[in-house]
Amino acid sequence: QKEVEQDPGPLSVPEGAIVSLNCTYSNSAFQYFMWYRQYSRKGPELLMYTYSSGNKEDGRFTAQVDKSSKYISLFIRDSQPSDSATYLCAMIHMDSNYQLIWGAGTKLIIKP
Amino acid sequence: GAVVSQHPSWVICKSGTSVKIECRSLDFQATTMFWYRQFPKQSLMLMATSNEGSKATYEQGVEKDKFLINHASLTLSTLTVTSAHPEDSSFYICSAREAGAANEKLFFGSGTQLSVL
Q1: Separation in Å, CA B55 to CA B22, B52, B76, B99
Q2: At CB < 8 Å, which residues of chain A contact B?
């Protein structure tokens, strides 16, 4: 079993819809949770990071962490075609000397 | 935000030649840089961790003699793919951790697509 599970998609939604992207993890030692966006042939771009359960909002993006369920989500409101990209979750636990553990990434397609 | 410049963006080379990829932190000092490799439709795989002024730490299965990493200054790390072969063709990405910051503030280069003929 992988430490971090993420559905690779693709996930296709119409423009303006609310998008929900999710990751599950198995190691309760994870303490930091990040979401990255990656356009084709580009490096990942950090969107949000959090280290506590609950919600964190930044513009159209909301990151949600539920440590009891070992489940994290990224919500995108009013989705735009420019949001089409691969979204990767990543996590850190101190036991691994700050190594990032990555999800496989979900390819998101926003249809105009 | 902080900027990491990675160069070149694309490189095509003949089998047997060596290729050097540079990763520079432009407006901050990076005590640690990470090198990743990404195969199509797969996530990033950490190859090595590079600390300024010391030898890089390679992940299991990564050949240190094949992938030479140098981190001679707080703003520059290089990855040299020696005697490249077609199986080395991949997308390589570097990231830099700002001095004194925890890993949640990593900044990424734009990546280098290597094609070995």
Answers
A1: 17, 8, 14, 18
A2: 8, 32, 34, 41-46, 49, 51, 88, 92, 98-100, 102-105
